[in-house]
Amino acid sequence: MFGGRILKKLAVCLTVITAVEAATDIGKFFNDGLRYWPNKDTDNGCKAHNEDLKDSYKEASKLIDAAVDAIQYLKTTPRPNILKQKDRWNWERQAQSMFSFFGIKISQKDGGPLPESKNNFDYVEMIFSQMQHGMQHDAPKDPRGLAGLYCGTKAWKFYKPEDTDPLDPRRKINEIKLGNGKPQWPKGFWYFNWNRIMTPDQTPENNAFCGERVLAFTVASLNFITFCDYAFSGSTVKTLNVDSAKEFELLMEKERNSLSLTWVHEFAHFYGSYPSGGLPDQPAVDKDGKPIKDDNGKAVKTYGVDLVFNLAKNDPDAASRTADAYALFALAMYHPKFNWAKGFAQAYSIIG
């Protein structure tokens, strides 16, 4: 399985998160020359888009830092006294957003999550912690191997079962067996740069990676992220202008649908789907919690503010494990002049 971002629009071991200036070296994180080619137009290289990727990657680290700061603040801070109006509004801005995007309830009296939200709060904290650690240290924290970054999918090639294995020319693909003796790749696989994959959605004619309006996708099990051509087609802005936000604007106005937002979404997949469990794009539900299907009867995925809000309202466990919730929460926290908990910009006002 792989997860991606389209345009629409437990027991957890926690790590202490510290405020450290991020290194954010995209070349080091993605192993420049091995699994990322910033100066090549071929082999899914990123030469044409490298500067945009570097700039948005650095900005993504700021979105992640803003989310981490909010989580740490809410974890230890009760709602301020009514006499401290601006502080109280700032607390509400963050706590209400935590509830709107994840369905996580924060204690007004003590700070931190209410008991029924603790597991999900801890999980969200862990994922953002891993994102921040990766940015600060230019490498994933866990020993998963080399991370990769690609642009486009033209270099992927399909190999039939009777073809020679590109990783071992001494054998045919149909000779690769599972432990039970059955073929590991009975239908063949798609191959590129030491990566082999075959999902139920893929066919010999279509690798199904970059579908219509798909900005990027992540294959966490193979440790790589790919930006699709659509991400650079004018469908997104490259970086954000925080000061341009105005009261009553929607959170997902085009000027905030950025490559940096896509980075956070993909990193949610990257960290949340490894080494076990998963942080996919969850099936979407309506306001009443009923599954949403497309015209072909296929489940719609949870992309965009409205569908994230629906999921958070009806199934906080799923909302805490859907990638767009992480991206949108980070985006909201990166714009601190407004409360985005209703999906649009609400400026500071006197509250009770």
Would you give an account of this structure?
By secondary structure, the chain is α+β, with helices and mostly antiparallel strands. The protein has helices at residues 26-29, 50-76, 85-102, 118-137, 259-272, 305-314, 316-319, 323-333; strands at 3-6, 148-151, 157-159, 164-165, 168-172, 189-192, 195-197, 214-219, 224-227. A four-stranded mixed β-sheet has the order 1-8-9-2, with helices on one face. It has a three-stranded antiparallel β-sheet with strand order 3-6-7, with no helix packed on it. Mean pLDDT is 91; it is low at 8-22.
Instruction: Please provide the count of β strands.
Output: 9
Distance between the termini: 47 Å
The radius of gyration computed from the alpha-carbon positions, rounded to a whole number of angstroms, is 21 Å
Helix vs. strand class:
alpha+beta
Give the percentage of residues in beta strands. 5-15%
Q: What is the average of the pLDDT values? A: 91
**Tell me, what's the shape?**
globular
Order of the strands making up the biggest sheet = 1-8-9-2
User: Order of helices and strands, N to C?
Assistant: EHHHHEEEEEEEEHHHH
How many alpha or pi helices? 8
Q: How many strands, which pairing sense, and closed or not: the largest β-sheet?
A: 4 strands, mixed
> Level of helix content?
25-40%
Ranges where pLDDT stays below 50 over 5 or more residues in a row are 8-22
